Amino acid sequence: MTDKLDAEERKALLSALEDSGWRAAEGADAMVKRLLFPDFSAAWGFMSQAALCAEKMEHHPDWRNVYNKLEITLSTHDCGGVSVLDIELARALDALAEGVAEVDRDIGRPLMRLTESRAD
């Protein structure tokens, strides 16, 4: 089983992800990001690539797609919060989205809020 990130790991790993648009999910020890694509086909194409990546990592996102918008939530259910698996998947998804999607930064709270009270 994967462990939740401790306070030091959170501070070290979450700041770079916040810069790329990840935010703290409301009411959960999870991170969320919303991507905007030119159209539905582009969003679906990204989701197909992301699904293959997630399957390889054996770690899957929770997501919601409406036309050209995709909201991705990452949390490791086994440990009840953010783990290194979420960090790795977030980085992989960021690389896939580069140049094909715009980040909607008007969601959630700053990701660094997850360093305040969520670590073990």
Automatic annotation (TrEMBL):
Native organism is Thioclava atlantica
Q: Please state which protein family the record places this protein in.
A: Belongs to the pterin-4-alpha-carbinolamine dehydratase family.
The record's listing under Pfam families reads: Pterin_4a
Q: Which InterPro entries match?
A: PCD_sf, Pterin_deHydtase
Transmembrane parts of this sequence: none
According to its UniProt entry, the protein's GO biological process terms are: tetrahydrobiopterin biosynthetic process
Q: Catalytic activity annotated for this protein? A: (4aS,6R)-4a-hydroxy-L-erythro-5,6,7,8-tetrahydrobiopterin = (6R)-L-erythro-6,7-dihydrobiopterin + H2O
The record's section on HAMAP family has: Pterin_4_alpha (MF_00434)
UniProt keyword terms in alphabetical order: Lyase
UniProt-recorded name of the protein: Putative pterin-4-alpha-carbinolamine dehydratase
Q: What is its EC number?
A: 4.2.1.96
Q: Does the keyword Lyase apply?
A: yes
- Report the GO molecular function annotations: 4-alpha-hydroxytetrahydrobiopterin dehydratase activity
